[in-house]
Write a structure and sequence with these properties.
The protein is mainly α and 336 residues long. It has 14 helices and two strands, in the order ααααααααββαααααα.
Amino acid sequence: MELVWQGLVGNFYRLTHVLLSAGSSFSLTSLGFALIVAIGVLAVPRWHKGRRVRLRVLARALFPRRIWRSASTVADFGYFLFNTFLYAVIFGMAAVSYQFLTNGVVQGLVALFGPPTPSSLPEFVSRSCITAMLFLAYEFGYWLDHYLKHRVPVLWELHKVHHTAEVLTPLTAFRVHPLDSWTFGQILAVVAALTNGVAAYLFGDASHQYVLSGNNVILVVFIYAYVHLQHSHMWISFRGVLGRLFISPAHHQVHHSTNPVHFNKNLGSCLAIWDWLFGTLYVPASRREKLSFGVEPVQPGIHTVTGEFIAPFGRALLALVPRRRRTLVAAESERR
């Protein structure tokens, strides 16, 4: 009974950390900010036109029944509960890899160039630089991981789970296969460790990035600003220079589109710069584009445990077989 109680307490702690920690990627405060932004996007144009803003109409626009009653949304809620507890284990392993690799990078640089020279910069400057460098590293690691998962058949079979969502809500961010999460954690650990090791050597001290609840503060700012709305029905499009620098909600909604024109586009998280540099950027129109979401052809059991957790293992293993790989590549080329 003691072990059961400890397990329940541990799970309750993880859930409260996700929901109540200010810097969490899914905190209630950041979700509240997303709601305020969404209300503004819907209400401000009506005010400018001199039209009344009715709360009932606003509520229906924010929470359409077709989305919140969808089987896809129900499945996303299950993913949220499952992955909230699993992520602690997966990213715990990634943290070990990150620290090990960081130490290795620093030791390698010392062997090549000698001991680092202590920095004469104020701590605020060095920590700000490291914070910015690690944020850029996170964004590049995210883009690289995402690019590989859309290009390598075995990785796509696992990542495809995320794309089977037929409607988008903030919960869709949790619709991820465990092996997909593990791969992301390891790629991110390598990229971040390389960056952190170089930064530690350049600044010659043990300065750390600025964090809030364990997350890079720059990333937290983006989470509060609009990241939750990337998985939503709210069409907010950045155009011009902004559309080449930042992944707006419309950018990511296009990424989930079943239109072949949109396949393998907008692979970044917050920044569009890596998509811009490597030719995977699609800047959406200012007016809402007609989109449908999901993976075609629709596979059986896409919102079930068997269809989303077990079946992807089998498809990923088959993708490793040379003949099967050629078949999958041909099928994906037709799809994309």
